[in-house]
Design goal:
Blueprint (H helix, E strand, L loop, with lengths): L4 H11 L13 H13 L7 E2 L9 H20 L7 H15 L2 H28 L17 H5 L3 H16 L5 H16 L24 H27 L2 E2 L4
Parallel strand pairs: 1-2
């Protein structure tokens, strides 16, 4: 068995060696050793970390697969392929892929995407049930009788998906790269959505969800929607998840 980090530090202390010359001379040997460990590992000693494995989610991976088998063909049949470009639908696909591969990055990024969206969806549906009006909008299709009830009920994934992803992160941790990945996914979908029909207003690429208006030319409007999504939804969720769950260690 090779020498442990503690034995190396103790030996350096006894010999008076400058084991880590890159740290300031005023620091103690142990402080310099700590700094060296932080530099190599990418996190502070004592910070809760975990590594995800392909067998970390033996039950949830199959739950995700069975959901996709039911949900994906039904959604394509009822709503069409274009509907899958919604951020919430992409979250289902990538989230289930993350469950299957026990990918903390995919699970975490889609938790960043779906947690606030799921809360807003549930509030809007609940508000409509209680008051007869929509609070935010975007859930009108749940009362559209042109579509079968069972197909509309499949949209309850807005509530179920965030709960499943939160449970998964208890097992595989939260990946800090999730915010950057989800921001990139959202940016790409916003641009693609602008090429679809204005009547669809996919991902609010033509009119924002609050004031239902356009914010100038396409580049300006997309920038406003993107910044709003990151600043008001993704960033707060990232901070919350970063605090709630252990951090997934990343192999460098």
């Amino acid at each position: 068995m090779g020498p442990t980090p503690s034995s190396i530090l103790e030996y350096a202390e006894r010999r008076g060696m400058d084991a880590f010359p890159l740290v300031g001379k005023g620091s103690s040997i142990r402080d310099r050793g700590r700094a060296h460990v932080v530099g190599l590992a990418g996190f502070e000693p004592g910070e809760k970390t975990m590594s995800a494995g392909t067998s970390a989610l033996p039950v949830l991976r199959w739950v995700g697969l069975m959901w996709m088998v039911v949900w994906l063909p039904a959604y394509i049949r009822i709503w069409g392929w274009t509907n899958l470009l919604h951020l919430c639908d992409i979250a289902v696909i990538l989230g289930c892929a993350g469950l299957w591969w026990s990918s903390s990055l995919l699970v975490s990024s889609q938790a960043v995407s779906s947690l606030a969206a799921g809360i807003l969806w549930a509030i809007d549906v609940g508000w409509r049930l209680v008051t007869g009006r929509f609070l935010v909008g975007g859930t009108e299709y749940m009362w559209d009788t042109r579509f079968p009830v069972w197909a509309r009920l499949l949209s309850t994934f807005h509530i179920g998906l965030p709960l499943v992803l939160l449970w998964a992160m208890r097992k595989i941790g939260y990946d800090r790269r999730a915010l950057a990945l989800q921001a990139a996914i959202a940016a790409g979908l916003f641009v693609v959505s602008r090429f679809l029909s204005p009547e669809l207003n996919m991902n609010y690429a033509y009119r924002d969800p609050l004031w239902h208006r356009a914010w100038g030319p396409a580049p300006l409007h997309l920038a406003v929607v993107f910044i709003g999504a990151v600043a008001l939804l993704y960033w707060p969720t990232h901070v919350l998840l970063n605090w709630m769950f252990p951090i997934t260690s990343v192999t460098r």
